[in-house]
Write a structure and sequence with these properties.
Number of strands of chain A: 4
Order of helices and strands of chain A: HHHHHHHHHHHEEEEHHHHHHHHHHHH
Helix content of chain B: 25-40%
Distance between the termini of chain A: 16 Å
Oligomer: heterodimer
Largest sheet of chain B: 9 strands, mixed
Number of domains of chain B: 1
Number of helices of chain B: 13
CATH topology of chain B: Alkaline Phosphatase, subunit A
CATH architecture of chain B: 3-Layer(aba) Sandwich
Shape of chain B: globular
Strand order of the largest sheet of chain A: 1-2
Shape of chain A: globular
Distance between the termini of chain B: 48 Å
Largest sheet of chain A: 2 strands, antiparallel
Order of helices and strands of chain B: HEHEHEEHEHHEEHHHHEHEEEEHH
Structural class of chain A: mainly alpha
Strand content of chain A: under 5%
Chain lengths: 432, 398
């Protein structure tokens, strides 16, 4: 395996799966993943309308204090995580999967917010995955209309104070979704918006809510809860109504500050913790030239020479666990309990503490006890890989990235399990 | 204090990483108990059972020689020619009580000096890796236990791994106390060394070790042996004994213990694993109680180590070594084997202890006499071993 192929497998992928064929032309391999349709389908999983129906029924049961503890949302979540993790373990288009993770984390929702559990999986499938090589504006709109985000950032009950519903009930609005959309999702903290912009945008977003009661629960623009009157955002005037909100999102999606913000995050994720400024600039330019084409942006990242500098990034726990499972080619019966494992390793699945998602720099993941737990888990999972030749597995997985000292330490190890632990705990495996 | 703190932390991480320990046992078709302890990493038979009566040993082993029996911290005499390592006091007691025997200068039919290949062969019971382990095939050959709901087998792998030794068509339970998930301290030390040059991972792992209560000196290889955890294996053995002692418990158990790969500073590094092994065997006897009388324990390693000490006060991968058998069922108090001597021409490939007894003879003899398995069963358990007859007289009559 050539070094570029070995590098592409970890930098842009999820690590080599067993002895799967290494990409002969890594750049063509990556490009093909961007240009070909998403090979992953989830035919067995319900859409968000069905998920919300389940949530509604469970809440009804709970209200009536029915004796059997309702567990349907939990079961739904388990099925979602199992299917989506299985896809990551097995996919032959891992770059695309990494993009799903990246954008899902950019537009983070969290199970820490109770109502999100029923739709967190559907959110990734419906609002993120279809757009990772599409237009950013389409993803942004899908996110802002998705029940998961509307629930998570509290827009469901945001009522314009001067709207009919506001006047009738005295309820008002909150700025949570508006602020995070400006600060985290689009312009960035230094994107040049003011508190007045936040408040205006919050007014624009009043009424962007969900209907939980109808036969097809989902996004609902509640005109009666929408703040009447035009609003000014970033010096531009937006008429009231749902269309005004769409227009505001379209402005934000194509704003130069947004492109810089997105380019910086992409470069930090795929190039280095402190990426070269000119690389960020080129990726931002590509976004601008293409009107926010995320597939073009992914290819622009790949085209950066700095993106081919090996092992500059540290794997997050999720990346690490999936890479371990792929390297050891664990079958479904030996697959780790992903929730328990990731919880212990500090990155509970779909449960970031804050709306800014999981951090993306090595130092964020290098807490001493977390690294010790990685080693402990690597040791545990190494015990399930009977029958492998550890050194061959390491060479197959990392190719020329495997360092001689790690190979030597593995060869000196007194057991297969110890050798695999040394491999999985080596810096070249923990980095990507 | 340090150990207590460490134990608590290990419990935490093990619970996280391994989930609840599961325990499934079955009524058994035999009252005999067989415990196999895998000594992973290649135990140096010449250190564990030093042939102090062989004049050539001093020439090869200068810095590694232990004082002869009767001297301070000297060998524990086994009858005038061999001496047991002083860390094996419990085993010595069993030996003097006629409950332990030693087979010296033994090796399986394999000649690989790769840990992994040789451990596979040892567990397969063959000169090449097989899909199942010989102990699993032993379970298949035993009379079936009386049927009862929920029974999953007569054998249990005690620890967090399911060894190849017990893999195969017979269903086998796997049980681990919750705190046995973490690697041994010297593995941490090696990982810390591998990561030392990484600007982020190096300092963080060093700090992680410190805050878990490892002394700084675990960071260098010399200190690793002294930091080796003291109580893991005996506790594991005690747990295994408790399982085996139950009237409806399993009859076959496998355990494993590492720490034998002593390429450097062997004398310091061997003490703790030997003490653990010794305390584990003692714990088996204590925990089995009256059932000890019908118990045989085999401790087997994949190969021995070079006769000549290497340049780092250690030994490298070799061939012939020792195997231990202990238990109330054992006709012990003897060192078995055909001593090949340590003169230069007597060595295997000019470096290793020449194996003179096929390890399978010991296994066969034990399975035949202790578990009553017939020749046809032995041929399936240890394929291609027709030329290796079972050792006789390993087990007490009656």
């Amino acid at each position: 395996m050539e070094i570029d192929a070995a590098h592409a497998l970890v930098r842009f992928g999820l690590g080599r799966k067993g002895a799967e064929p290494a990409p002969a032309d890594p750049r063509a391999w990556l490009r093909q993943q961007i240009e070909a349709p998403d090979p992953i389908r989830f035919p067995a999983l319900p859409d968000s309308a069905a998920c919300l129906t389940t949530l509604r029924e469970e809440r009804a049961m709970r209200r009536e204090n029915l004796p059997a503890a309702p567990t349907r949302v939990r079961d739904l979540l388990r099925a979602e995580t199992a299917a989506q993790m299985q896809a990551a373990m097995a996919t032959e288009a891992p770059f695309r999967e990494r993009l799903v993770w990246f954008w899902g984390n950019h537009f983070a929702v969290s199970l820490r917010h109770g109502g999100v559990a029923a739709v967190a999986g559907a959110y990734l499938r419906e609002a993120i995955r279809p757009h990772v090589t599409g237009r950013f504006g389409d993803m942004l709109l899908a996110v802002m209309r998705h029940p998961a985000m509307l629930i998570y950032l509290d827009n469901v009950g945001s009522v314009g104070p001067d709207s009919p519903a506001g006047l009738r009930t005295g309820r008002g609005m909150n700025e949570n979704l508006a602020r995070e959309c400006l600060e985290l999702h689009t312009l960035g903290a230094d994107g040049g918006f003011t508190q007045a912009d936040v408040t205006s945008f919050a007014r624009i977003l009043t009424g962007w809510s969900i209907d939980l009661q109808g036969p097809e629960p989902g996004f609902l623009f509640r005109a009666g809860a929408h703040e009447p009157g035009a609003q000014t955002l970033l010096g531009r005037r937006f008429e009231d109504g749902e269309a005004g909100g769409r227009a505001a999102l379209a402005l934000l999606a194509t704003h130069p500050a947004t492109y810089r913000h997105l380019a910086g995050k992409l470069a930090t994720h795929f190039i280095a913790d402190a990426p070269p400024a000119d690389a960020v600039e080129r990726i931002a330019s590509r976004l601008a030239e293409t009107g926010g084409d995320l597939g073009a942006a992914a290819l622009a990242v790949m085209a950066e020479p700095a993106a081919w500098q090996p092992l500059t990034k540290l794997r997050t726990p999720l990346d690490f666990v999936v890479a371990c499972a792929r390297a050891l080619d664990l079958g479904e019966d030996t697959m780790p309990d992903i929730h328990a494992v990731l919880g212990g390793l500090g990155e509970p699945l779909w449960m970031p503490p804050l709306p800014n998602g999981w951090p993306d720099r090595a130092t964020d993941w290098a807490a001493p006890e977390l690294l010790m737990r990685r080693i402990d888990w690597a040791h545990a999972v190494s015990g399930r890989a009977a029958g492998t030749d550890p050194v061959r597995l390491a060479a197959t997985t990392l190719g020329p990235l495997l360092r001689p000292e790690t190979r030597a330490a593995m060869e000196r190890a007194g057991s297969r399990r110890d050798a695999l632990t040394l491999f999985l705990g080596s810096p070249e495996f923990q980095r990507r | 204090m340090i150990l207590n703190r460490r134990t608590a932390l290990l419990g935490l991480t093990a619970a996280v990483s391994l989930g609840p320990a599961s325990l499934a046992v079955a009524p058994a078709g035999t009252d005999r108990r067989l415990v196999v302890i895998l000594l992973r990493g290649a135990l140096d038979g010449l250190a564990a059972v030093q042939p102090y009566g062989d004049p050539a040993i001093a020439r090869w082993r200068g810095p590694l020689l232990l004082p002869e029996p009767g001297q301070a911290e000297g060998l524990l005499d086994l009858g005038g020619r061999f001496g047991l390592h002083p860390a094996l006091g419990g085993l010595h007691g069993l030996y003097r009580n006629g409950e332990a025997l030693i087979l010296h200068a033994t090796a399986g039919p394999w000649r690989s000096r790769s840990h992994f290949e040789a451990q596979d062969d040892l567990e397969s019971g063959a000169a090449q890796r097989l899909d199942s382990g010989w102990l699993n095939r032993t379970v298949l050959a035993l009379p079936s236990p009386p049927a009862r709901g929920g029974a999953v087998g007569q054998a249990v792998a005690v620890g967090t791994a399911m060894p190849l030794l017990l893999e195969g068509p017979a269903r086998v339970a796997n049980w681990a106390p919750s705190r046995f998930g973490a690697p041994a301290p010297d593995l941490y030390a090696r990982l810390a060394a591998l990561n030392r040059a990484d600007p982020v991972l190096g300092p963080a792992i060093a700090e992680g070790l410190r805050s878990r209560g490892f002394a700084e000196r675990v960071m260098d290889e010399e200190g690793a042996a002294s930091m080796r955890e003291r109580n893991t294996f005996p506790a594991l053995a005690a747990a295994a004994a408790e399982l085996l002692a139950a009237p409806d418990g399993p009859r076959i158990a496998a355990l494993e213990i590492g720490g034998w790969d002593t390429h450097a500073d062997q004398n310091a590094r061997l003490v703790q694993p030997l003490r653990q092994l010794d305390a584990g065997i003692v714990a088996l006897k204590a925990g089995l109680g009256p059932a000890w009388a019908g118990t045989a324990v085999l401790a087997l390693t994949e190969f021995g180590r070079t006769v000549r000490a290497n340049g780092t006060k250690g030994t490298d991968h070799g061939t012939g070594t020792v195997a231990f058998a202990a238990g109330g069922a054992i006709a012990g108090g003897r060192v078995l084997g055909d001593w090949p001597g340590l003169s230069e021409p007597a060595l295997f490939e000019e470096r290793d202890l020449q194996p003179t007894t096929d390890l399978r003879a010991l296994i066969k003899g034990m399975l035949a006499a202790h578990l009553g398995l017939a020749e046809t069963a032995l041929a399936q358990i240890l394929p291609d071993s027709a030329g290796v007859g079972p050792m006789l007289g390993l087990v007490r009559a009656g």
